[in-house]
Every structure is written in structure tokens, then in C-alpha cells.
Specification:
The complex is a heterodimer of chains A (505) and B (313).
Chain A: H1 2-9, H2 56-64, H3 69-84, E1 87-92, E2 95-100, E3 103-110, H4 112-136, H5 141-144, H6 150-154, E4 176-183, E5 189-195, H7 202-215, H8 217-223, H9 231-242, E6 251-255, H10 263-273, E7 276-279, E8 283-286, E9 289-294, E10 297-300, E11 303-306, H11 310-313, H12 329-334, E12 339-341, H13 352-366, E13 373-374, E14 378-379, H14 383-391, E15 396-400, E16 409-411, H15 417-429, E17 434-438, E18 444-449, E19 452-457, E20 463-466, E21 470-472, E22 478-481, E23 495-502
Parallel strand pairs in A: 3-23, 5-13, 6-7, 6-11, 11-12
Antiparallel strand pairs in A: 1-2, 4-5, 4-20, 8-9, 9-10, 14-17, 15-16, 15-17, 18-19, 20-21, 22-23
Chain B: H1 3-32, H2 38-52, H3 64-73, H4 81-94, H5 101-114, H6 119-123, H7 128-148, H8 153-178, H9 189-198, H10 202-209, H11 215-224, H12 232-245, H13 252-270, H14 274-277, H15 282-305
Helix pairs in contact in B: 1-2, 1-3, 1-4, 1-7, 1-8, 2-8, 4-5, 5-7, 8-11, 8-12, 8-15, 12-13, 13-15
Classes of the chains: A alpha+beta (505), B mainly alpha (313).
């Protein structure tokens, strides 16, 4: 069997392990003694405890590794992250300590068929979101036809009036998108959120691959994992396709600087693409042309991949207290002398209310059915939904549309009656500002915890590139909630990440 | 090359050089102190303290332990070994995309390894060892810089920073040995040996002058030798080479300012003679070298880093 062959090839230089291939039952046998299968869909085990075929090779490896070996590999992987400087800084007592972002060694595996559906669904989605942005910053047909309420768009704090009537190359507003997908209890992938502004995490996708491939070389080879290393190339090609000419395009990555938590990623992408990494203070605008200050003089910049929020890009137009941006950048952009990716004003299309309209937008613009579903969402601005939400507050999660990061949110099942009553008043006084969703049980994936393998909740963030063409590198950042039972995968709240293997067949 | 990037590479190199110099002085001193009388060792430590710290953080006691903690591991002292490493690494992080993975990881590992160390932790047995190991890492780092980075403009800024720093550090060390300080015992035979070791110069000196230890020969070697990498002249040659290669497309008028200063400094060490420097003249001579180095530092900054944008539009 395949697993037997693996036992001989996995550990280069180590002794052969002539162990019989044994069946390890979750919840009973090492290393799965604490693997409890519950209501959520599990990535590795079917409900009856048998291993999904695409996880068989990994299972074979996990059940034959000598005790302690997994821990040793996990530590080697953490040390590698520390040396590479893939860290964020924690300040306490005036002492800055650097922590690595936790990475789990066990890959999350996605089959070819699942991926094909995800890829098609995301391409459809990014296409429609870009059509929508072009529409609302242009003729506003979708508003005139009454598909989306005017007030929702023009009242959004992410709508940029300055962008109206301004053409963007190939009509591509969102050039880099990171959409968060989760699996429901039935195992279907649904979209939880689109990140259309400055999504991050792609460097972790690549860094995780680098260490996990070294930790499980034979399993990696035997299952046929599709490569993702060309992401920086594809990003470069996408940025290049946005320039109005094709030779000697000068591209730069604009970072807020070394104190930003995603700085590692900015430097990583600039290095991998072979382009300049700039900060606002390196750039200046003269006569509506953007220049970088170099030792020899000023150098013109044609395309800026900005990793700074809209608000901070240009203090003359947006927040005047911003010192991260470049005064005059927006006018240079308007004049067509520089391309900014993502375009400004894309945030209007990823707020929680517009999210609820995406399936309708897909039908409206493409006359197609959505390939990937949304999480079921109730818009409190709609009479029928409002009464349903108010009647079921104890079962729903209610979110304010313009907020993110868990602010202005009610988690019904975990709230007290008083909190729910209080929130009901807020909803009634401003229904337009709220949406509600059922609590979603994210799927679980095997994760190395405390010396054993246990299930932990995961999501999936693939990265979509969209310029002249749309490209999705077959991989993703899988975020994992490392605390038992937790559904919060954010790195700020105890989340980590995993390598994601998309299989070729 | 972006001005900010050039500036960070330059400072990274200066901090690395300063860190290496600090580690070497402490290692040599810890190893040699056992062979000296208490009085001689105190005088010698005094010179190390003067060479490595400004007034503010200079430890008052002549105790080796206190001095080692202050010069190597005190995080508040901006010129300590760990602070130099932090400075080097902070600058490297600023320009991470310009460095090879090898350079970054070597520097980062060295930083992470020394960051938590204290004198207390290493004092128990053979305290010099941690500095010898650090020196090995510094030497490896120099090799990695040489062999994994393109020798492009950024590399020349690194050379500029390294050798400008080195010329100043060696000048200061020489000054402290040739200047008469009231109340401090003048250097003896053993101190001249130690001075050579501070500059990794003992063996190369012996090859050039035999093992006859004479202060004026040591001065001649460490100031004027054109081939030894820790002589002042050698470093100034590298500074001049680097200055002719950076910012190739800068306006000629701005280049001319820098090149004139470089040429003047080169002439000072190329045409100087040891005979002119004896009987005390070496002290003002070294002060002049240091001043010229500072002038070059300022002029590079004005011409290539912080020039007014209006001058080039």
C-alpha cells in the first residue's frame, strides 16, 4: 500500500520504520486520542471515523511517526519562522518581544474537484464585484434599476465620490482579492466575506508551504500537490497589465513601514517580484507625476501596489493627518499618470450589507446562478427579515454593516436577555445599519496540539488576481482557531495558519 | 537606488562594524587581563571604556564584570554590543527586500542569540568565549555579504559605511594609546601587543616588521599600511572607491562636493609619513582624520540622501 512505501522514504537518513499499517480510530488511538468528532464537518474524518481518501497518505505518516518526532518538526518549523523574521511585535513593560505567528505543521488538503468549484465560483464573484464597482462609479445602472438601494451605496463611508467617472485599466478595480470561505455542516464551501481593500496573508501561504514541504517531503510528493510558488510572478504580471504601456514599467510596493504588522509581507512581495519597496516619504508628486527619491535623483513610478488604506493614501484628499501617504498622489492618479492597485473606493463593495446582495448582483450582471453560495444573510432594512431577526435574536449573529473586527456585534446564543433586548432597540432605531446571520459551524481540520492531533476550526482564504486576466494560484491561507472549540481564526485572537494543499487530481 | 534604502544599508554596515569592533575589544581584553598587574589592567580597561562609550554610560568602576555588562549587554547604552546589533538589524529590516535571505538570516540569528545574554550568565566560565563566538559570526556575516549580495550601488553603500566607521574606530583607539593622559599609566610593552590584537594586527604586523614591538612602527602599520584591512589608510582607500561608485547618475555638481572631500582625505593618508607624526604630532593628525570622516558622512547625506527635491526638478 501507499503508506508502506512512505514509511521508507519519508525520513531521509533516518532508520526505516517497519511498522505495520494500523488503523487508528479518532477518539481512541494515538495520535488521535483526543480527536472528538462533533457536529461540524471534519476535513480528515468522515462521520463514521474513517479517513477521507485524500487524507490517507497524511494519516499513514502520522500514525507511524515515532513519538516526539512531530514535536521536533514543529519546533524546527517555528525556529525557521523566527530566523526568517516572520514575526510580529508585542509590547509590554517597555520591552518589545517578537513572536512568530503560530503555524500548524499539518497541511489542510483540498481535493481537485472541490478546488475546481471554488476557483470557478471566485472568478465569477470577482468578475461581478468589478462590474458592480464600475457601475456605481459610472452610470449607476444597478441603482437606477432598484437592485441595490441608493442610500446603501451613497451612504457608505467607503464610497469615494472622488472616483466617479474615473476610468480604471481593464475596468479592474479590485486587482488583489482575498475571499474568506468556510464549510458548512454539510461540507459545502460558502463565502463568508470578500476582502477587496488591502487583503494580506499571501506571504504566509508561501512561507507555510516552504516549511511544511520540508516537514513532510514524501507525503507531499506522493499526493500530488499543485505548486503555488509562482504567485509573485502572477502578481507582477497583473500589476504590469495595468500600466498604460508595456516596456520599462516602473512598479513599486507602497508600505506603511516597518512597524506595520504586515511589513514582512510587503518586503517579501517586493523582493520576490524584484520591484522597489517604498514608503510614503520616498515618493513625491510634481506636476501630477509620481517620483521616488533615489541617490541619483528622481525616478518616475508608473504602478503602485499600495498596502495602505484609502484613508491614508493622500493627505490632500483624504485624511489630512496621514503621514503614511503621498500628498498629490490622487491627482496624479486622476490625471492617469500613475496606476494604484487596488483602485481607491473598492471598500464600498465588501461591506456586510453589499455582501448580502452579491448573489443578486451575479444574477443581474451575468444572468447566472452563483456557483458559491453566501452564508444566509438577513438584511434588517427589509421588513420581512427584520421581524425574523427580532424574533430569533437568540439564534443569530447580528453585525453592524460598516464595522469590522468584531465591533458593533451581537452573538445571540452567547448574549444575555438584557443584552439582546438592548440590541433589539438599536436594530429598530436604525435597521439599515444591521445584518444578521445564523451562527456558522466552521469545519474542523487535524491540528497538532499538546503533543497530539486534535480537530480545530478552520477557514480558507484564497487570493484572486485580476488585471487583464483573472488568475487564482491553486492554494490559500488556511487560518485555524488554535483554542479548543473557538470559531475565531483571527491572528490577533489566538489564531494560527496552516499550509493548504490543493491536489492535482 | 532609493535614498532611504541607501541610508539604511549604510547605517546597517556602520552598526555591524561597531558591533564587531566592540566584541573584539572585549574578547581581547578579557583574555589578556590575567597576564597584567592590577594597575596595568585598570589603565588598559580605561582605554577600552574610552574607546567604546560616550561619557554618559561609561562605567565608573574598573571592574571587568561591570564594564563587560555595560559595554556588551546594556540595552540602554546605545553603543553597547547588543544595541549595535539592534541598530544593524533594525536597518536591515527596513531594507529587507534588498538583502539576500542569507545575509538577513545570519544577522537575525546573531541578534536573537545575543539579545538575551547578560554578563552574569557568561561570567561563570570563560566569559571571553561568547565574544569569540560572536566574532566568528561577524566574520561569517562579512563573507556572506561579500558573496551573496550583488556588488551594486547598495553594496558600495555598505562598504562606505563599514570603512568610514572602521577608520574612525581605529583612529580613536590609536589616539587613546598615543595620547598622554594624566593619572593613567602609559601603555607598556604588553599594551602595545594588545593594541595590535584589538585590530587583529599582531600576525600581519610581525610579518611586516618582525616581532620587534615598537610604538612608532605600530603607528606606521595601523595608520599608513596600504594592504592591511584594519589600517586607517586601507579603510580610507575603500571609502574613496565606494564614493566613486555610488549615485552614478547624480548631478556632477553634487558628486564633485563629495569627491573633493574624499580626494583630500586620501591625500592626507597617502602622502603622510610616520616621521612627521612622532613626538606628539600623531594626536592632531588622528583628530584631523576623524574630522574629515565626519565631513564625508555629512556631505554624502546632503548630496545623495536628503537633497532638496526642488534642486532636481
Amino acid at each position: 500500500m501507499q503508506q508502506d512505501a512512505l514509511a521508507h522514504t519519508e525520513d531521509f537518513g533516518g532508520p526505516d520504520q517497519h511498522q505495520p499499517n494500523r488503523v487508528c480510530v479518532p477518539g481512541r488511538d494515538a495520535p488521535y486520542e483526543h480527536y472528538t468528532l462533533g457536529k461540524p464537518y471534519d476535513e480528515m474524518f468522515a462521520r463514521d471515523g474513517t479517513v477521507h481518501p485524500h487524507y490517507a497518505a497524511l494519516d499513514g505518516r502520522l500514525t507511524t511517526l515515532p513519538p516526539g518526532e512531530l514535536l521536533r518538526r514543529q519546533q524546527a518549523c517555528e525556529l525557521s519562522f523566527l530566523h526568517q523574521g516572520i514575526t510580529f511585535t508585542v509590547y509590554n513593560d517597555n520591552q518589545a518581544t517578537e513572536r512568530i505567528i503560530p503555524t500548524d505543521l499539518l497541511p489542510r488538503i483540498v481535493t481537485a474537484a472541490e478546488w475546481a468549484r471554488i476557483e470557478a465560483g471566485l472568478k465569477q464573484r470577482i468578475h461581478v464585484l468589478n462590474l458592480f464597482l464600475r457601475d456605481i462609479y459610472g452610470d449607476a445602472r444597478v441603482l437606477k434599476d432598484g437592485i441595490v438601494p441608493r442610500s446603501m451605496i451613497y451612504g457608505s463611508k467607503h464610497y469615494r465620490r472622488e472616483m466617479r467617472g474615473l476610468p480604471v485599466p481593464h475596468g479592474a478595480y479590485v486587482n488583489v482579492c482575498g475571499s474568506d470561505l468556510v464549510r458548512d455542516e454539510a461540507g459545502n464551501f460558502v463565502v463568508l466575506e470578500d476582502n477587496l481593500r488591502v487583503p494580506s496573508g499571501v506571504s504566509y501561504m508561501l512561507a507555510n508551504r516552504d516549511v511544511v514541504r520540508r516537514a513532510f517531503p514524501a507525503v507531499f510528493r506522493s499526493v500530488g500537490v499543485r505548486p503555488i510558488e509562482h504567485y509573485p510572478n502572477e502578481l507582477l504580471a497583473t500589476l504590469r497589465s495595468l500600466a498604460p504601456f508595456h516596456e520599462d514599467v516602473s512598479i513599486a510596493v507602497l508600505t506603511p513601514g516597518v512597524f506595520n504588522s504586515a511589513y514582512f509581507e510587503h518586503a517579501f512581495l517586493a523582493r520576490q517580484m524584484g520591484v522597489e519597496l517604498v514608503e510614503g516619504r520616498d515618493l513625491l508628486v510634481n506636476d501630477n507625476v509620481v517620483y521616488a527619491r533615489t541617490t541619483s535623483g528622481l525616478k518616475r513610478i508608473d504602478v503602485i501596489y499600495r498596502r495602505i488604506d484609502d484613508d491614508f493614501v493622500d493627505p490632500l484628499i483624504f485624511r489630512e493627518d496621514s503621514s503614511l501617504g503621498v500628498p498629490g498622489l490622487f491627482n496624479a492618479y486622476r490625471a492617469g499618470n500613475v496606476v494604484v492597485a487596488n483602485a481607491l473606493g473598492t471598500g464600498v463593495a465588501d461591506d456586510k450589507a453589499v455582501y448580502a446582495y452579491v448573489p443578486r448582483l451575479i444574477r443581474y450582471y451575468l444572468s447566472e446562478e452563483p456557483i458559491l453560495d453566501n452564508v444566509e444573510t438577513y438584511l434588517c432594512r427589509e421588513e420581512k427579515s427584520l421581524s425574523h431577526v427580532l424574533a430569533n435574536l437568540d439564534k443569530l449573529v447580528v453585525k453592524a454593516v460598516g464595522e469590522s473586527g468584531g465591533y458593533g456585534m451581537l452573538v445571540g446564543p452567547h448574549a444575555t436577555q438584557a443584552e439582546r433586548d438592548d440590541f433589539a432597540q438599536k436594530i429598530k432605531s436604525d435597521p439599515d445599519n444591521y445584518i444578521a446571520q445564523p451562527t456558522i459551524q466552521l469545519s474542523t481540520a487535524p491540528t497538532f496540539v499538546d503533543g497530539g492531533v486534535e480537530p480545530r476550526h478552520v477557514d480558507l482564504r484564497p487570493f484572486i488576481l485580476h488585471g487583464e486576466h483573472t488568475t487564482i494560484v491553486p492554494g490559500a491561507l488556511t487560518r485555524v482557531a488554535l483554542k479548543r472549540g473557538s470559531l475565531v481564526v483571527n491572528s490577533s485572537q489566538g489564531g494560527g495558519s496552516k499550509d493548504t494543499w490543493v491536489l492535482s487530481e | 537606488m532609493l535614498s532611504r534604502v541607501a541610508d539604511s544599508l549604510y547605517w546597517m554596515a556602520r552598526y555591524i562594524e561597531r558591533g564587531e569592533h566592540t566584541a573584539r575589544l572585549i574578547a581581547v581584553k578579557l583574555e589578556s587581563m590575567v597576564e597584567q598587574t592590577r594597575e596595568d589592567a585598570d589603565a588598559s580597561w580605561h582605554r577600552v571604556v574610552e574607546a567604546l562609550s560616550g561619557q554618559e554610560f561609561a562605567p565608573k568602576a574598573h571592574d571587568a564584570y561591570v564594564i563587560t555588562q555595560a559595554l556588551a549587554f546594556n540595552r540602554v547604552n546605545s553603543s553597547s554590543l547588543v544595541s549595535s546589533l539592534r541598530g544593524a538589524r533594525d536597518n536591515a529590516r527596513q531594507v529587507r527586500e534588498q538583502l539576500s535571505t542569507e545575509v538577513w538570516e545570519h544577522l537575525n540569528k546573531l541578534y536573537l542569540r545575543l539579545q538575551p545574554v547578560t554578563a552574569e550568565a557568561v561570567w561563570g566560565h570563560h566569559p571571553a568565549r561568547v565574544f569569540r563566538e560572536a566574532l566568528e559570526d561577524f566574520h561569517t556575516l562579512e563573507g556572506v555579504v561579500y558573496s551573496t549580495l550583488s556588488h551594486n550601488e547598495g553594496w558600495h553603500f555598505i562598504q562606505l559605511g563599514r570603512h568610514l566607521e572602521r577608520a574612525q574606530l581605529v583612529s580613536r583607539l590609536l589616539d587613546l594609546h598615543y595620547r598622554q593622559v594624566p593619572g593613567v599609566t602609559a601603555p607598556k610593552y604588553f599594551d602595545w601587543l594588545v593594541l595590535l590584537k584589538f585590530c587583529t594586527a599582531f600576525e600581519p604586523y610581525c610579518k611586516a616588521y618582525t616581532a620587534q614591538i615598537r610604538p612608532e612602527k605600530i603607528a606606521e602599520f595601523l595608520v599608513f599600511d596600504g594592504e592591511f584591512p584594519h589600517s586607517v589608510r586601507f579603510s580610507i582607500d575603500r571609502v574613496c572607491d565606494a564614493l566613486f561608485r555610488v549615485a552614478p547618475a547624480a548631478p556632477p555638481a553634487r558628486r564633485a562636493v563629495v569627491e573633493r572631500l574624499a580626494g583630500k582625505l586620501k591625500a592626507t593618508v597617502d602622502f603622510g609619513q610616520i616621521e612627521e607624526l612622532m613626538s606628539g604630532a600623531i594626536v592632531p593628525f588622528l583628530a584631523d582624520i576623524t574630522k574629515q570622516c565626519e565631513g564625508i558622512h555629512e556631505s554624502v547625506h546632503l548630496s545623495y540622501i536628503s537633497y532638496g527635491a526642488e534642486t532636481v526638478l
